[in-house]
Amino acid sequence: MATISKISELTPHRNDWTIRVMVLKKWSEMVDGGGDILRFLLVDDYGGKIPAIVGPGTNLYAHFDDVMHENKWKIITGFNVEFSPPGFRFAVNEQTIILTGETDLHNDLIGYLENVGELTVVTDQSFTLSNDKKTNRVTFTIKDLEEEVLECKAYGALAFQLYDKWWKHGTTETFITMSDWVVYMDRRTNEIKIKDAGGISRFEFNAPYQDVYDFSSAYFHDSDGSSVEIIENLSP
């Protein structure tokens, strides 16, 4: 598991940082020449603050607007750090985080488990010393409250556990809670997908939580009709 750094430790000389932050503020600004730019103010567990901005790229604005919300915590990796331009230095920080197509967000999610594919063996991309190491992988799909289908992938022991538990469940209606999973945009298809975070991701079927009961009621249209997020975000 990567070491989580403080905001005060960030510098522009690396791009392998991992931070845990809460979104204090999110807003959109018009830019010269037309269009909008999405900005955030982030704070970590130590009170350090830093602005963040969504970099250019197809559908990046919509992606980060969908998955980053005020007062929600995220573990973020794969971002760039740059010095803030003159006139845009605030939050007692002279640097800005740039969120890109390479940026991954760790999320806590609930979804209706629609299907689990076969357990397969693939090359372990996390093992960089050679390309000979293999690992288990399972692909599964979940549905949100608007019947949108999201593709998810789990690797290693987590893949085996999920596959085994799914088939023992049989045809039981299954709602899955997923803790510390990565939501990312597939650059080839511009689709939002989900993958495990390499050792820290967890899941549970039909967990006895109020959030799951609320999601189940909304999914089967047994709720009072109040609006519910498409995918419930359970971050603290």
Automatic annotation (TrEMBL):
Domain Replication protein A 70 kDa DNA-binding subunit B/D first OB fold, residue spans: 6-105
Q: Which residues form the signal peptide?
A: none
Q: The organism sits in which domain of life?
A: Eukaryota
The record, for SUPFAM superfamilies, names:
Nucleic acid-binding proteins
Matches recorded under Pfam families: DUF223 (PF02721)
Q: Which InterPro entries match?
A: NA-bd_OB-fold, RFA1B/D_OB_1st
Task: Kindly provide the name given to this protein in its UniProt entry.
Answer: Replication protein A 70 kDa DNA-binding subunit B/D first OB fold domain-containing protein
Recall the taxonomic lineage recorded for the source organism. Eukaryota, Viridiplantae, Streptophyta, Embryophyta, Tracheophyta
